Structures are given as structure tokens and as C-alpha cells.
Inverse folding.
């Protein structure tokens, strides 16, 4: 910031004689002006009176000529120095410098205030610009990520389709295993040769009971274990051929109930 000019005091420079001389010159000029004014008044009184119509017609032209002459006179006039006294001139010059100094200080203060406001505006604009750049960068990153990687919805759909395909494959594999098991059991563990029926012991008069295959017994045990794992036991029916039950128990495929020998369950091989 520019330094202010030092205060200029005229009292310490201008002497009393210079002031007196300046006042005398001003009074002299004032007297000359009063004499010119009195002469103009006398000329006005000596001018012959004109009629109102003629006066209203001639007065604008006279005023125009007077103003033109005064304008030309002021244009051609060379400014006169009020006083030739060096002390008076120095005093007047310092007074003018003081006025210019005060005016420049006001201008400087205004410019500094304006610059401060502009700096604050510039700081806010730069902050806004940085925020916009960060936002644009974040949007670009998000757009690139969405283009380069699948969306969450597409990932979920893909996982669902993969799981569905696996389930279908498992179902198909299960059907194949069941068919292979049924064929194996029908080939190696057929029903007895007495027509697939058995009679209750001691009751020859009662009709025969239709026996079921080993495959059907195993399927019944498996379904019971899967549907009610807390109660997997199946009651031994008359349609169960005893050799099949003995085969399952001896090979550890089925287990008897610890309190009820007429109930069996499938061994939980999957546990």
C-alpha cells in the first residue's frame, strides 16, 4: 500500500507580509470589478428606451452577441498571476497540493476497498470452481465404473440364473441316481417268488398282504427323514418283507428305535 503524503501546513510557510500583500491585491481587483459594474449600470441607463415588441425581438440577439464576445475573450485570455511574491505562490501551491493529496487519498481508499471486494469474489469463484471440478471428477468416475462393471441388478440376475441352472443339474443328477438305484435294486433284490404276497403268521384265513419292493422301502425312509428330520422313524408294516428289513439293519443302512423295535429309520449319512 502506498504511503500517504505528509501533511502540508501553510501557517509555517506563509509569512504575515505575504498574506497582507495578497489581501491588498484582492481588494484592488475587487474595486476594479465594482467600477466596471458601475460603468455597465450607467450605460444601461443611458441606452434609449425601445418598445416592448422591438425589445423582445432584439434582446436575444444582443444576449447572443454578448455571450459570444465573452466566450471569445475567455478563450484568448492568458491567465494572470495573482501575485509575484514567492512566499504567496509557495503557500498557494502547497494548498493545492494538499487538496490533490486529500483527493488522491480518497481515491486510494476507494480502490483498496474495491480490490478487497474483488479478492473476496475471486476466492469464492475459485472455491466454486474447485467444487465443480470435484463433482465432475466424481461423476466421471461413477460413469466409468458403471460402464466397466455390471450393475448390482445384473449381478443378482446372473447369480440367480447360475443357481437355477445348478438346481436343474442337481435335479437331473438326482433322477439319474434314482433310476440307477431302482434298476440295481430290481436286478439284485427282487420280490419273493410266491407272487409278491405274504400271509400273517398264525392267520392263514386272512387275505395276503401285497409286499413292496426294497426300492419303495428306501424311498419311504428317505422321504420321512427329509420331511420330518426330528421324527424320522417309520413303523414296520406287513408289506415290508422281513429279509429286506434285516438286510438294511445288518448293513447299517437303517436303525431301530431304541424303545420301539417295530420302528426303523434311515441312517443320516448326510449329517
Amino acid at each position: 500500500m502506498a504511503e500517504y503524503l505528509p501533511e502540508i501546513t501553510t501557517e509555517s510557510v506563509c509569512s504575515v507580509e505575504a498574506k497582507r500583500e495578497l489581501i491588498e491585491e484582492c481588494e484592488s481587483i475587487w474595486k476594479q470589478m465594482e467600477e466596471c459594474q458601475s460603468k455597465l449600470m450607467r450605460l444601461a441607463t443611458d441606452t434609449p428606451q425601445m418598445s416592448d415588441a422591438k425589445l423582445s425581438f432584439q434582446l436575444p440577439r444582443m444576449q447572443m452577441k454578448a455571450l459570444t464576445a465573452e466566450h471569445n475573450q475567455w478563450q484568448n485570455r492568458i491567465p494572470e498571476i495573482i501575485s509575484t511574491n514567492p512566499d504567496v505562490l509557495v503557500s498557494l501551491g502547497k494548498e493545492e497540493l494538499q487538496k490533490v493529496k486529500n483527493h488522491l487519498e480518497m481515491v486510494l481508499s476507494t480502490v483498496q476497498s474495491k480490490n478487497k471486494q474483488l479478492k473476496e469474489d475471486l476466492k469464492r469463484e475459485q472455491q466454486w470452481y474447485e467444487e465443480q471440478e470435484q463433482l465432475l471428477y466424481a461423476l466421471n468416475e461413477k460413469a466409468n465404473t458403471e460402464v466397466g462393471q455390471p450393475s448390482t441388478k445384473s449381478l443378482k440376475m446372473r447369480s440367480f440364473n447360475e443357481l437355477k441352472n445348478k438346481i436343474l443339474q442337481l435335479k437331473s443328477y438326482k433322477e439319474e441316481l434314482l433310476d440307477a438305484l431302482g434298476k440295481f435294486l430290481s436286478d439284485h433284490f427282487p420280490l419273493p417268488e410266491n407272487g409278491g404276497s405274504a400271509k400273517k403268521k398264525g392267520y392263514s384265513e386272512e387275505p395276503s398282504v401285497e409286499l413292496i419292493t426294497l426300492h419303495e422301502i428306501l424311498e419311504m425312509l428317505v422321504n420321512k427323514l427329509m420331511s420330518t428330520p426330528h421324527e424320522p422313524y417309520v413303523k414296520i408294516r406287513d408289506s415290508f418283507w422281513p429279509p429286506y428289513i434285516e438286510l438294511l439293519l445288518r448293513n447299517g443302512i437303517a436303525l431301530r428305535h431304541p424303545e420301539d423295535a417295530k420302528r426303523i429309520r434311515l441312517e443320516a449319512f448326510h449329517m
